[in-house]
Structures are given as C-alpha cells and as structure tokens.
Amino acid sequence: MKRDDNSRTERTVDGASRRSFLKIAAAAGGVAGMSGLTSAESETPDVAYEWQDATLDSYWYSLYNMNTTIAVSGVGVLFPHNEQQKKMFKKRLRAILKHSEVDKPPIKNPNLNMAPFTEGDPHFTQKPVAPFTVDSRKHQHGDGHGEAPTVQRIHANTMAWNREEMSHVVSPSSVAWTHLKGVTWAKNFQNHFGLLPENMAAKFRAQMLTTIAQISIKATLVDGGPDGNGALTKNDDNLLLVSGYNPKKKEVVDSEPRPMQHAAMLWFLSDMVSLAEGGWYGYVNPKPLIPSEKLQQLLDGMAKTTMNAFPPEKVVEMGSTRDVGVMLGGMGWYGTHAGSETLRERAAEYANALASLIKDNLSDDGVVQNGTENQAATQGAVGQGLLWASQVEGVSHQNTARAVLNCMMEQFWDEDAGTFATGTDDETYTITARDAGDVTGGLNAADAVLDIEGAQDLFATYFNQTFNRGRLQRAQRPASLDPEERYVLPLPQNAGGKYGQAAVYNTEVTYLADADEWEVTDDRFTTAQALYLANQDVWIGQWGGSFYDGRGVPGETDQPVRTAGDSETNTSTGTGNESNPNSTAPTHTETSQ
Question: Which of 155, 342, 430, 563 is 20 to 30 A from 75, alpha carbon to alpha carbon?
C-alpha cells in the first residue's frame, strides 16, 4: 500500500507565520538580539500557534535532543576512550573536515556517544559555555564592526551531565533509537545542504553522525564486549540481544531478550542499509567503516532472529498490543530493505500475522484492546505500524489503520485540554516521552499517508499544549525561541537547578483535568523514549517549509534529493580509511543463513 496522496510528503508551507520565519532567521543569526533572549517560561496574550509553528518547533526539539545525546551530554560510552581510538579519531576527523567546507567542528570538546546509557540527569554541573548563555548582544553577534562573537561554539565539556547520576547500562533500544536519530538527521542535513545556514556545518554533522553510528554497530553487534562478538549479543549462534549491559563492570545486567529491543534495532539497521545503499554523503565520506554488504548481513540476521524468537502472540505476552504496533513499524522498515525476495516474503508473512493479531483485539469502534494505560498512545503506535508495514509488498492494512487513527483523533482528543486523553474516563493524563512519540507517529501517518482531515490542526494544538505548556520539552535554544508565543520555554541556563538543564525531553508529564494544570512528574532523561520521540518529531518536522523527505515512511527516503554538484560531492575519495573493512564481518552464524 502506497500513500493516497504522494504530494503530502513533498508539501511546503504556504503562508508560513512571521514567527516561523523569525525562528529560521534567528538560527542563521539574522534577527538582531534574538539569540540573547534569556527569559524563563512565560505566558503572553493568545497568539495563534499553527501547523507550521509546531512542525518547525518539532524540528528543533528533535535536533536538540539528538545533539545533546550524541555530542554533548556524555550520557554513554564515549569515543574515543583509549589511545588507539584517539589516533584513529584524529585521522578520521581530518578527513571529515576536508569534506565539510569548515575548518573546525561546530562543537568544542565534544562528548561523542557511541553507546548511550539508558538514563541520565540533564542538569548541568557547572556554568555552561555556549553562544546562547551569553546575554550581551555584542558577545552574540559581535560589535557591529566585524568583530566575531566571543563564544561561537558550544563547549561540550561545560555542559556534560553528572556521571554519578547515569545508569551506566547500555541497552539495544538506547543504542538503536539514538543512532537511528543520527542517521535520520544525516539524511536531513544532506537534503537541506543548500538551505541550512553555513554555521550549522551540515556536511560535517552528516559525516560525524554516520561515523559514530557505524562505530556503535561494531561495538554492540560485531566485535565489542568481553567476548569480542558484540557487547549486546547473547551468543554466537544468532543475533539474539541482551537487554542491559554495564560496560564499566563488563557484565550483563539484564540477559532476557525482549521484542522492543529487537524492534528498535530493526528500525535502526534498516535505515543504515538505506543510507549505505543510497550512497548518502555522510556514509561515503570520508569512507565507510562498515561495507554496505556487511550492514545488509547484519540487518537480515537481526530480522531472522527477531521473527524466530518472538512470534506475534509472544510480543503481546511480553508487552502489549502497542508493542505490536512498533514491531509492525520495524517490519515495514525491514521488508522494504530485506536482502532477498525470500526474506521480504517472510517479513510480509510475519507482518500480516502481527496485523491479524491487532484485528483480533480491535473493537467495533476502532479501540485497540490489550494496550497500555495510555490508550491514545496505543492507537497511535498501532496506526502508524499498520501503515508502515503496508509499504511492504503483500501487506495491506490501510482500512484497519484508518479506523484505529480515526478512533484516536475522535474518541481520545480532549478539546478543553488541547491534548489526548489517556482514557475516555480519566481525569489525570500521565504522558511519557514514548507516549508522545506514539501519538506523534500516529498523527504523522494520518496526515502523510491517509490524508485525514484535521490531523495537522490536532498536532499543532497537541504539540503546543503538551511539549510547550506541559513542559515535556524542558528547555530550548535560541533557534526555536519566539517571545511572541504564549508558552515560551526557557533557555537551558534558566531551566532550573544551579546551572540550568539541557534542552531535552522530560521522561514524564501529567495533566490534571479538573485543575487544568500540568506538572513534570519525572524529570529524568530516559534515552530510548526520548530518542524514539525525537525521530517521530523530525519526521513530522520542517525547515523553511521543506518537510522531512518521505515523512519517515519506509522506503521513501532511500535516495538523496539530488542537486547540482551531487555527482561530485557524494563520492568518497578514500581518505580516512582508519579500519580494515574486513574486520567488520559479522561472526554470528544466522547473519549468513
């Protein structure tokens, strides 16, 4: 099943609000004084907050969460962390800069995260140094006579989080959703090379994000860990994954394989194969660390292991029907990137079995039974999953998806609250970052694939109330700051605590319907949830009216948007080959079956 209206994913914003263009100009340093604003959250008189405002903010919040997790916070196993890796990194960095049209990285002293921990505390431990932490306009934009700003880059060493407050446990989902985010943004950067401001260093970021993703795959699935077969793999026979590993202690802390850990890896590895097969800039430059055929072997092995280990009934038994929705999405991504026709057919068969289970749990009014406490999230995950899986030949569940998503939008939308109710009789709505990711994914699918009327308006209100007023996003940087909006999130240094907090999602917020009040009920950072949401946020996001190409639909973002000069810039010179590609060959027997 393909989208009803192919133009939906290519849509541009007509008549975008002045505020949206102010944000774009501010990101490029073009609005005087915008970057110097440091006001905390405030309310101003009612100002319309529309689709283009929400999708631009979702673009930026997604970027903040990705940038903070992968390059700033240090919430994970950092790269490089030994002398051999430091030498390799220096050589690779020189090659990346050569292909980036910049003379230095956009972040100073980055904390490059190759294997993210499951949790952390986003409070800063010292005064952060970044362009947005300096109040004076002179320090932000120079003195007006050619003098450069005093602080031009984020100093990541001043914005690292307290390591004592981190879980020190790596999970497949924390790795997969984080580096899927990196790959997603590597594609987004390339498709916007000609649109993004020069100071964003888009070519540098595309290469660095893809480099770290490949290093993460090698460490977690191929040759890392105490046994040298991948820190997160359970054995040598297949690609069954443990659910928690402490790299400092070199011990497995959760040995049970779980469906959602594997589903996350399917989404991630499928997009890595897409990146490699499509010859994307960040992968071919400066040179791949893992050959595309090896990535395909890993993906096929992960899919076979997943389908063997988790029959559809077991996915529900170990989780819920909401998890079936996420697994369906993973199958949609895998089935459109399978290494053979036989494997594609097997993926289609598995996806149809998952969909059949959903239909068995579907009430006449479209409510998906046996989900989670947040019913709207269950509806969103299942609706998107059915549509993503329907991109695979031999899978078609559009009508079921439409019923599920219409139900979410009609039965669970609370007009007074401006958000989705967790249940039709609930008076308190507890919303996690994962819940928001599921709802956002459902609305994106409803709009981009089914063209359901009203999805855009609901998303705009939902995003403003839940992320901005409700503080699911805890802070923002100047690129998204707009003092004209009613709910203005603080800059990081003003976001609470002695030194402030990073501009990332909270784990949980709660809405009290009787009081019409929101409160943050879990201010920890849960990596897998946050980066899952960050992926959903960029797929529905736009920059300057240009939406994310393909809107996250499997198979719709496999080839770069070609522009003049791509035939030259999208090729590798071979510079920076720091590793022997043959060393990345998977050792797990199931990958070659």
Answer: 430
Burial (0-12, 13-18, 19+ Cβ within 10 Å), 340? exposed
Dump pLDDT digits (tens) for 180-191: 999 999 999 999
CB 299 within 8 A of CB 336: no
Reading the block at residue 555, the tokens are 């198979």
Give the range among 129-133, 187-191, 240-244, 301-305 with minimum mean pLDDT: 129-133
| Contact yes or no for 439/509 (Cβ under 8 A) | no
**Tens digit of pLDDT for each residue in 129-144?**
998 886 533 334 444 4
* Cβ within 8 Å of residue 92, ≥6 positions away: 211, 286, 576, 578
| CA distances, 364 to each of 27, 308, 346, 438, 558 (Å) | 48, 32, 30, 22, 37
Q: What global pTM score does this model have? A: 0.90
The sheet carrying 508-512 orders its strands as 428-432, 508-512, 517-522
Q: Which residue has the tokens 């005087």?
A: 32
pLDDT above 70 covers a percentage of the chain that reads 84
Among 205, 206, 222, which residue's Cα sits nearest to residue 106?
205
Write the DSSP assignment of 576-591 as a string of letters. T--S-GGGG----GGG
CA-CA-CA-CA torsion sign (15, 58, 67, 531):
negative
